[in-house]
Amino acid sequence: MEILEMNYINFRNLEDRNIQFSPRFNLFFGKNGQGKTSILEAIYFSATGKSFRTSKNIELIKYNKDKMGSYISYRDLISEKTLSVKSDKKNKEYKYNNKKTSFDEFYGKINVITFIPEDIELIMGSPSFRRSFFDSEIAQSNYDYFKNLKNYNKILKIRNKYLKEKKTKEVIFSIYEEEFIKSASKIILKRIEYVKNISIILNLNYRKLFDDKKELCLKYESFIGEFKGLNLEKIEEKIKVKINELKDQEIKYGYSLVGPQRDDFKFILNNKDAKSYSSQGEKKSIIFSLKLSEIDMVIREKREAPIFLIDDIASYFDSVRKDNIIDYLKKRELQVFISSTSDLNIESKNFRIDKGEIQNGNHECK
Ligand SMILES: Nc1ncnc2c1ncn2[C@@H]1O[C@H](COP(=O)(O)OP(=O)(O)O)[C@@H](O)[C@H]1O
Ligand SMILES: [Mg+2]
Fold this sequence. Notes:
With 366 residues, the protein is of the alpha/beta class. The protein folds into 2 domains: 1-111 and 304-366, Rossmann fold, CATH 3.40.50.300; 120-296, Glutathione S-transferase Yfyf (Class Pi), Chain A, domain 2 (Up-down Bundle), CATH 1.20.1050.90. The chain contains 11 helices and 15 strands. It has helices at residues 36-48, 103-106, 121-124, 127-140, 143-164, 171-209, 232-253, 274-277, 280-302, 313-316, 319-331, and strands spanning 2-9, 17-20, 25-29, 68-75, 80-87, 92-96, 99-101, 112-115, 216-221, 264-269, 272-273, 307-310, 335-340, 349-354, 357-360. It has a 6-stranded antiparallel beta sheet. A 6-stranded mixed beta sheet has the order 8-12-13-3-14-15, with helices on both faces. It has a 3-stranded antiparallel beta sheet with strand order 9-10-11. Strand 6 and strand 7 (99-101) form a beta hairpin. Helix 4 (127-140) packs across helix 5 (143-164) and helix 5 (143-164) crosses helix 6 (171-209). It is globular, with a radius of gyration of 22 Å. The two termini are 32 Å apart. The structure holds adenosine-5'-diphosphate and magnesium ion. Adenosine-5'-diphosphate (ADP) binds next to helix 1.
């Protein structure tokens, strides 16, 4: 997959522009505070309709303006296509090939993997942060998962409402509960499969790029407990057992104590939880390896490479790690967008960013 060009209007501090990209490396360089992250964010926003920094639309609109918009043309395996988003402070409007479309239709047309310094939160942050990350990663190349997750969240809300109002004896509650169990077990089964597959690739990538003497593994921890060898029906049974176990407490507390919204994911390096035992450098390497593994997962699901955005590479990695990463990326057939404050040893299309203004330029920032 390849983004050919992009247009944006009133996006953060960026001066309105039309940019043509290289199918391989695109480098945005400049000093801090000039708009490097914003340009990557604009690419991400154009491709997915969302930001990787905020869920608040209004923050993306240039100060003192009411609206912003983006447009991109891209090429996938089949043909050239376009996506555009218009947004005011409240609403967004999505278009695919110049026709209005819903967000659900829009999302997932282009697969994007990002690496931003804040990703370290995937190790250090809350379980809900990890869940929403892995959920959206699975969803972006699996439409059934995306739909089911939406459905699940809807039913969960309803279930919680009934629990809160202590209406669990009503017939309708048991109907919802059946749907709840079915939907929950589909989520769990897909997460089990995903983690099993990505964990193998993750270990390979980590060893190849960073440390071939260590073993890295991603572990899924579900509220259902041990899940080895379980199919959909068996997972449903386990959920039913859990519900019976916790029903009284659920009514007491007034919300669901069962369900995949209580699951978590752990990174295990040499049999130890990375959150508590790994060094900063190791954590960064784990997350970068995870991102590379996601690229492989998208290729596996979609038979096509996603685009890859890397923010602030030079300030995040020491020069040895950085060189390893660049060498690795050179060997892959990917369209990559990198921002950096310092020079990188790659052949790339270069864009210099100065106070939101982007100019085609050479490597000159030291
Ligand atoms: N909605 C907005 N409108 C105008 N400027 C903004 C907006 N949001 C952030 N900025 C400013 O944009 C500048 C560039 O930010 P950023 O892209 O994070 O820089 P860099 O990644 O190059 O360090 C910052 O000075 C920030 O204050
Ligand atoms: Mg930045």
